[in-house]
Every structure is written in C-alpha cells, then in structure tokens.
Amino acid sequence: MTPFFAEFIGTMLLLLMGGGVVANVCLAKTKGYGAGWLAITTAWALGVFIGVVVAGPYSGAHLNPAVSIGLAIGGTFPWSEVPVYILAQFLGAAAGALIVWLVYKDHFDATDDQGIKLGVFCTNPAISNPLINFLTEMVGTFVLMFVVFYITDGELTYDSNSTLPIGLGSVGAIPVAFTVWVIGLSLGGPTGYAINPARDLAPRFMHMILPIKAKGSSHWEYAWIPGSAPLVGSALAAMLYYVLK
C-alpha cells in the first residue's frame, strides 16, 4: 500500500458509499427509496470515515484535492506530493462512481428523471445562482479544512508537562466524519455540498461517458463551481490557520 494506492482506494470507497446512498434514496424501485436527506448526509459522513480508516495510515487520507492543496498552503504537506495525491483522488472517485452505476444499473434504467440520474454522480444547485452557489461551496470547504487543521492526536500529559503520544488509530477518522456530516446537514441544501473537486468532476466525467439509459446532460457549465470554490475555501482556511497558529 503506497500513498497513491491509499488515496485511490480511500477515495473510491468514499464515492462508492456516497454515490451509493444517493442512488439508493433517489433512484426508482430501490429498497431505500425516499429515505431522505438525513440518510444521504449520514452515509456520506460514514463514507468519509471508512475512507480515512483505510487510507489514513498510509497517506494521511486526504481524499480531496482541496485538502491536499490546503495542507500544502498551510505548510504541513510537501507541494511535491500534491500532483500524485490529486491524480489518485480523481481516479479513485471515477472508479467509485463506475461501481455505483454497475450496482444500480437496473434502477438507473427504471428511473425517468435525468436530474436524479445525474445527482447520483455529481452536484447541481437547488436554485441556480452562481455567486451564492460559489459562496456556499467555498464556505463549506473552509469549515472542513479549518477543522482538519485543528484535529490533534491523542496524548497523555504528565506533571512535568511532558507528553506521550498515544494515537487515536481508526478513531481519529471520527472528527473528520462528523465535520462532513454537519456540513451536509447545515450547508448542503443549496448545492449538495461537493466540497471536493474530485468528488464532483470525476463522477461527472463518468456520467458523460457511461452508456446510461436516457441520461441527459452532464451540465458541465456548472462544474467550474465545485471544481474551484473548494480550492478557494481551503486556501482561505489554510491562510487563516497559518496566521493564528
């Protein structure tokens, strides 16, 4: 397991669980049809959790180009590693989206609404307003990145003020999952909270190339917002962290 494969597998699992829950809740004739927003946000958060559990020991589990770039801006991750991480994240997201389509192919075929089919792969705004949509994605990613900077490892403090790291193991993935969960519940309504360029752009590309029955447009005219706003939000969080630390 190298950092590249860790990022690939972790992001693939994230998209498999995240895209999978949207398919289960929204596509026709599924067992989970109509389960609602709480089910979607919960499964996305738990998808982050399992992705971080698997990838964390080997790559730090960025699973998101905005996280890799934000950590590099904040000085806690080498810029030389960023391109490799981003490539792995995009490939992993594409693979996860492909598997979701294969698993739910019959339900894609049974669904008439083109927007619902697209929504399994990527985000689109509830109300199209580019400025507000951009702001929403930027703020959501700012919150994610700012919290990531302040997640610490467990440690024991002695009377001499010396510390002994004890680590959190897989439990360390819980704060990240909770952060994604609350972002979805609180800020996800306007845009579907991509907060991750790989999570949106790679599956959108898969929607474009896969032979999905009556799929309609992939709406690339909107893709610049989930592709760029998370990077801006992450950069702002990194700069604020650098000033405050």
Q: Could you outline the blueprint of secondary structure elements for this entry?
A:
Layout: H1 3-26, H2 37-59, H3 65-73, H4 82-103, H5 105-110, H6 114-121, H7 130-150, E1 155-157, E2 163-165, H8 173-187, H9 197-209, H10 224-244
Helix pairs in contact: 1-2, 1-4, 1-6, 2-8, 3-4, 3-7, 3-10, 4-9, 7-8, 7-10, 9-10
Description:
The protein has a two-stranded antiparallel sheet with strand order 1-2. It has helices spanning 3-26, 37-59, 65-73, 82-103, 105-110, 114-121, 130-150, 173-187, 197-209, 224-244; strands at residues 155-157, 163-165. Helix 1 (3-26) runs antiparallel to helix 2 (37-59), helix 3 runs antiparallel to helix 4 and helix 3 packs parallel to helix 10 (224-244). The two termini are 33 Å apart. The protein is mainly alpha-helical. It is 66% helix and 2% strand.
